[in-house]
């Protein structure tokens, strides 16, 4: 994903050719192993196993969800949208935290994700980098990269040697799981947004490094990756075209959370022309398309951003890209997840909710249901896949101005899709007008009956079809949108929708006279006209109207919100049993065996089920229980289900028994830092050379995340009265300084500054006296790069300059620490990024199982009376029954504006970083599996006060975000207990 802050083969086993169907010159033509499947393409679309398919995909990052079982939950939700693919990034920096030592174990193992994708019935686009961006620490690049000199993301030999082992390692995992080996992966993407380039001197270079691209593709091949490769050019710039299929990104709605909707740019119309200009022989592929937005420290919070990036955005901007005949569309993000354990870059905070269709706590937003309507339509509209945009009409109406693109099916030579949209969707003006369309019976102006108008509200777009076959039914046109259709026991069921109160028109080519029989809803809302060749109906949309047109056609005309309740399951993971289910919150799976249709899913209230299925299905179950149904007047089955969400007691975290220790022993006179790393380098690999006598850059010594502590030992010349420093930690960072045990002051931080020049008054030092300056700083994550050749991710964390006023003391030494062990981190299960450098964390006191009985009792609501760092622990028990999904969060209530920072550890996993005076995040979702829903939990908090007046939490609560019946069963992630840490300090 683009950060707008910066603009934002060896495996030739068995043979099945992967050859682009048109074999355009210049593309690689390779051999693929295995016979389970192939992935090919032509200028219109991809084919998987010989079948032409729309790739409708959602981006999910396995690394942002460290509970392996929850992948299936998210992936079933993606599948239920009607999507067929998920796309993933892999974060190199996490899995190779120490150079040469890969951690693919436990929560970092990708296999459970690929298995879950397969179980859910989804294909995967694998995007392993090396660079990924993704608002992640270092953009995926490892911290040790700071010590690899020269430019990154080009063919610099130092960089090549750095990435090759990783691509080889991850490449083999991808190869093992590609479709030709029976796995779900169909496409692989090297690099990410490799679109801008820099010279060593930092000036822009117009040329990409084609040698780097060649090396990457060679490494993919070498690892056995035989599926097609794509790129995602950050804009249609024609970069990295040596991949098989050129792809690009687009984030058309912008990221202006402050001004929802009114700040929307006009939807762009150049996608198709732009893509054809670069790669006319491959499908129009948008490898990242805006599915929400990110938010930064001091930002607006995702609920506010969602107002800008909600269902309206999906109606306007997604439909706009269909107007460009987009046949691979990956929505970034469909589920964002959490930047647990310091995984964010400094431009973001713990939540990576993204305002996505599936929220961070895995609940479903309205946008989810809007996307479901659209994806399902495209999945039953194969002619869309061979359509290309033709004429674009733009015209004013008595209301707003309208843009209509006609898509024409170049292969079938019959169907047209009209994408009708607001030219200025950011304006709040509705329109009602007539539309002129081309059909097989000539030009028509619709709606035809009476005085009705075609209605397009503001922030809306609609798709009108002509000569559209729904099985044997030929729809001449429909101004009502189609969600889906199925031929069930010889009867064609067509599901149509519009907004409540709008009238819509559908015309069917039929030479037989048909009885129009309104079986549900008010017959007064339906008017019709039959001619010798057509039957045209007009319906005023009101909740749900079901109309039989003879025995073989059944129309459901529903309002949008009611349409949200319909699901089109992939029965037994094969689209060969036609079923439509009206349900509730979520339909996960549908299995048909014997005469039983077994449905699983989630409900959040009384749910009316309707089963529209072949008669061979005679019994229905919901999550294993029999669903009692009655026959409707139109031959479907209807039943009612009352959701059971039992009340549960959860602890009041304000009142649990909290234990505490001081986590800043470093400022006591007797503190011994002899086990710390000595900052004794006089050379840095970094391009920014400091003025300090020794290098004080944390990454040079292997510390890349969390809090960093510095201790400078000096002998006074006498009269030192001022300490000046230049220190850097990333946006919203802060630091505090002590002279021996005397607090000198803090920089409390602000959203933007990533560095600070500070001046602190010293009580004049006496000649010959010994002083230790202790600096506690926050590290907000490694920066991302943006351009190839840029070295932003090496931005130092630490001091580049310091000086004294009054006199200059003699430096004895500088010591530093971050997480215990640095790159040789202490906790393999939770990974290198999880820990920071605070005393209590270095000791492992954040882990479950530590005996804190000798600690003092004190609550974080009491807190500190001055500057410093407290560390708190408490345990509590949960007993949440099976069969429900009750996502929880740790909530700090309203912000006070005081300067303090909290890190939250739940069963040893860092699941939140709260900065009270910067915000915006105050509520921190912690998933089941990190939280033990059946037994004991340990919560630990560091509380860093940056003010003389001290700091205390206003409140702390464990809250249940939503009560849902259903869910999936979750095994807890490994949460190894405390063990005394040898050589800890
Ligand atoms: C590669 O690394 C070595 C050792 O740090 C350094 O001397 C050399 O200049 C680097 N090469 C480039 C192209 O930066
Ligand atoms: C429609 O477009 C015309 C011509 O560009 C412009 O003059 C008019 O103001 C627009 N109407 C609205 C409602 O935006």
TrEMBL record:
Key words of the record: Glycoprotein, Glycosidase, Hydrolase, Signal
Superkingdom per UniProt: Eukaryota
Pfam families: BetaGal_ABD2 (PF13364), BetaGal_dom2 (PF10435), BetaGal_dom3 (PF13363), Glyco_hydro_35 (PF01301)
Protein family: Belongs to the glycosyl hydrolase 35 family.
Entry protein name: Beta-galactosidase
Biological process per Gene Ontology, one example term: carbohydrate metabolic process
Transmembrane segments: none
Catalytic activity reported: Hydrolysis of terminal non-reducing beta-D-galactose residues in beta-D-galactosides
Keyword Signal: yes
InterPro entries, sorted: Betagal_dom2 (IPR018954), Betagal_dom2_sf (IPR037110), BetaGal_dom3 (IPR025972), BetaGal_dom3_sf (IPR036833), BetaGal_jelly_roll_dom (IPR025300), Galactose-bd-like_sf (IPR008979), GH (IPR017853), Gly_Hdrlase_35_cat (IPR031330)
Domain Beta-galactosidase per the UniProt entry, residue ranges: 384-566
Oxidoreductase recorded as keyword: no
Signal peptide location: 1-16
Catalytic EC class: hydrolase
E.C. number: 3.2.1.23
GO MF assignments: beta-galactosidase activity
